[in-house]
TrEMBL record:
GO terms for molecular function: oxidoreductase activity. InterPro entries: FAD-dep_OxRdtase, FAD/NAD-bd_sf. SUPFAM superfamilies: FAD-linked reductases, C-terminal domain (SSF54373), FAD/NAD(P)-binding domain (SSF51905). Residues 4-395 form the FAD dependent oxidoreductase domain. This is Amino acid dehydrogenase. Keywords: Oxidoreductase. Coiled coil: none annotated. GO terms for cellular component: cytoplasm. Pfam families: DAO. It comes from Flavobacterium johnsoniae.
Length: 411
């Protein structure tokens, strides 16, 4: 059987490895990190068929510009005179329109629903990662946000998703874990959640059973070619022969693609999270605090808060206290009983979401390098979309018809 090399052992690389190995491929994974703390680990763990509208949408440019002048805002583009950023910005502008959103909705919905089904299959065999289907509450405090949320919910209903519109009193009936200070909420019944670190632990154990070779702390540096085909992968730990390559390097994908002569526009969207243990009063339903764009997820007995999106570069590893304070303020505003203090830096996690300017992931066979497949650019939905991505990658590598249409997931 062919040997498939996967570059990147985040959730996308691991799920791709799982379905490839199940199909009978010999699979090897390379990751430059220790594979225990990257973007796939500290995220909010939400599986979100509700998120069918991509980040590139009408109104986002104007909103983004307003937010750029607020140091605690949830979205920020670090201004730099850099050609990658300018190219990304122009592409984002090109995609932020109703026509793109209309085409994106069914594509994201189908990918998301397939992914959720696959998570259900995993959860049936093993519940070590606390998979739960409680839906997602979009909580809001202002009439303006309510109008935006209603518009999105109507789109979701048109796409066939089940949505409940709740008053403040109805929110209190659904959210029994703690007091909420909101104008109302929208309950997407389609959504689920899990504990990311525990899921990654589970999938790594499955890969070991499937005899997948995992190489942490191994940086892929270059490629050797023969007639538009990668024959060898050059790493800092040696050179490895390969038949197929899957590029799943998240925010680092552009520099590796460049070595292959392919331009991929992805910028890291830095976000933070912190996880609290043993809180007496805590939300019981995964929620998004809409005005602050803060994600709140119960994970077994823990509670995780995540937020902010700073479009930046991968060398930017500083924790921006103002933005973290913005998250803390939102939590205390929405959940007055919780009284959350600013977390210490050592307890604050950050990750780089691999953001494409279209807001769509890239799941495709390269046209230039015959044995290369892309599995990257999942931005804020990588956990949600990982199993479906892994399944599609396996179908693409095997030359089979894909389970869902991939035409919206091209470069
Ligand atoms: C605050 C926050 C909250 C989030 N919440 C959610 C959520 O609720 N639901 C959801 O669906 N998504 C969420 N996300 C997004 C999700 O975490 C990402 O989309 C996902 O982790 C991306 O996975 P990945 O495998 O593509 O990338 P990564 O996890 O970044 O993996 C890429 C891997 O490639 C490796 N790599 C890079 N270059 C090389 C090289 N040269 N050689 C070897 N290895 C290399 C890296 O070390 C890395 O481990 C959130 C993100 C953040 C920051």
């Amino acid at each position: 059987m062919k040997k498939v090399s996967i570059i990147g052992g985040g959730i996308i690389g691991l799920c791709s490895a799982y379905y490839l190995a199940k199909e009978g491929y010999e699979v090897i994974i390379f990751d430059q990190s220790a594979m225990n703390d990257g973007c796939s680990y500290g995220n909010a763990g939400m599986i979100v068929p509700s998120h069918i509208i991509p980040l590139a949408q009408p109104g986002m440019i104007a909103q983004g510009i307003k937010w750029m002048f607020d140091s605690q805002s949830p979205f920020y583009v670090k201004p730099r005179l850099n050609s990658d950023l300018i190219k990304w910005g122009l592409q984002f502008y090109k995609h932020a329109n109703a026509k793109h959103v209309e085409k994106a909705i069914p594509a994201l919905r189908d990918l998301s629903l397939l992914s959720k089904e696959l998570y259900q299959d995993f959860a049936l065999t093993n519940d070590s990662f606390f998979y739960e289907e409680k839906g997602l509450l979009m909580l809001y405090k202002t009439e303006k946000t309510a109008a935006e949320m209603f518009h999105e919910a109507k789109e979701a209903e048109k796409a066939g998703l089940k949505v409940n519109y709740l008053s403040a009193a109805e929110v209190a009936k659904v959210e029994k874990g703690t007091v909420t200070n909101v104008l109302g909420g929208i309950h997407y019944k389609s959504d689920a959640h899990l504990y990311p670190q525990k899921f990654l632990q589970f999938i790594k154990e499955e890969l070991t059973k499937l005899k997948v070779e995992i190489h942490p702390l191994t940086t892929v540096q270059d490629f050797l070619f023969d007639h538009h085909k990668i024959t060898k992968i050059v790493t800092d730990k040696g050179t490895f022969a390969t038949d197929e390559v899957v590029l799943a390097a998240g925010s680092w994908s552009p520099s590796l693609a460049k070595k292959l002569g392919i331009s991929v526009s992805i910028l890291p969207g830095k976000g933070y999270s912190f996880t609290l243990k043993d809180k007496k009063h805590k939300p019981s339903i995964p929620s998004i605090l809409c005005e602050g764009k803060v994600a709140v997820t119960p994970m077994n007995t823990d509670i995780r808060f995540g937020g902010t999106m700073e479009i930046t570069h991968t060398a930017d590893t500083k924790i921006n206290k103002n933005r973290l304070q913005g998250i803390v303020n939102s939590i205390n505003d929405f959940y007055p009983e919780m009284e959350i203090a600013m977390p210490e830096e050592k307890d604050t996690w950050f990750g780089f979401r691999p953001c494409t300017p279209s807001g769509m992931p890239i799941i495709m066979r390269s046209q230039k390098v015959v044995n290369l497949t892309f599995a990257t650019g999942h931005a804020m939905m990588g956990l949600s979309l990982a199993p479906a991505t892994g399944k599609l990658i396996t179908e693409i590598v095997s030359g089979k018809t894909t389970s869902v249409d991939t035409k919206m997931f091209q470069l």
